[in-house]
Amino acid sequence: MSDVEFRDIEGTASHLATPSDFIALLKPRVMSLVIFTAFVGLVAAPGSIHPVMAFTALLCIAVGAGASGALNMWYDADIDRLMRRTASRPVPAGRVAPGEALAFGLTLAAFSVVLLGLFVNAVAGALLAFTIFFYAVVYTMWLKRSTPQNIVIGGAAGALPPVIGWASVTGSVSLEPILLFLIIFMWTPPHFWALALFKSDDYGRAGVPMLPNVAGAAATRRQILLYSLVLAPLGVTPALFGFASPAYGVATAALGAVFVHHAYRVWRAGDADPRFAAAKRLFAFSIVYLFLVFALLLVDRLAALFGWMV
């Protein structure tokens, strides 16, 4: 973004912005997944937490996720303008000034980290601070524009919410939340690379080195299949380590098999699928997969707590 464009946006955006624009800065769809996985981590953790503290923890995690989204949109405004998928976001569209987005994100980040650290516990607060830093600085400012492995490494930020939820109850991190972290971490590459396959023109215009643009579609399809083959058994590990019931293990094994099936179809389709129909189906199912894995774990934990038969 040039200095002239920046000054023009700064001078006109303030009177164009609406509350919905600032809500959009929070990336509410991403935030909803963050809240859900953090909630599962919180409920799955051993011990108890006061309802007010639990609500505060989830609120802080949600606000922290929103802060990360706002900081991401502030920094990425120049490339967001070049992609159809993101051109209508508040900053590149000129409805919110870059300085306003930056101040909004920093304020929310500070508020969420301090409140979580003081009101809940220091470990959860530190993990939230690290998550925001990793997403806003390590991923957005460095990895995204410098390496096709941006999604692989940067996925750590999106995988941390259940760990923060767990730490909010226990004040510590153990094997169980690490397994939840690994499930999301390994889910992220095939999920986003499926999107990158049918949005490669967008990323190419913006100069973002996503895997299809750097290594090609064939290599991306292979990587999607390989990661899916690792993800499928990883989703079952909570049951294998006694953290979830056998019923959870059977259900997640079936979901993993469907995930691998979709990934296999993406790999087999190759250049014979010019409209990327298989990749679009995988992308859609990947969202369902992650939701169901965590929903099953939530039901499993609630069943254990209330003595339901599973």
Automatic annotation (TrEMBL):
Molecular-function GO terms, alphabetical: protoheme IX farnesyltransferase activity
Function: Converts heme B (protoheme IX) to heme O by substitution of the vinyl group on carbon 2 of heme B porphyrin ring with a hydroxyethyl farnesyl side group.
This protein's GO CC annotations: plasma membrane
Note: Carbon 2 of the heme B porphyrin ring is defined according to the Fischer nomenclature.
Main location: membrane
Classification via Gene3D superfamilies: UbiA prenyltransferase
Enzyme Commission code(s) on record: 2.5.1.141
Name under which the protein is recorded: Protoheme IX farnesyltransferase
Catalysed reactions, as listed in the record: heme b + (2E,6E)-farnesyl diphosphate + H2O = Fe(II)-heme o + diphosphate
Example GO BP: heme O biosynthetic process
Organism of this sequence: Prosthecomicrobium pneumaticum
Superkingdom of the source species: Bacteria
Topological relation to the membrane, as annotated: Multi-pass membrane protein
Locations listed in the record: Cell membrane
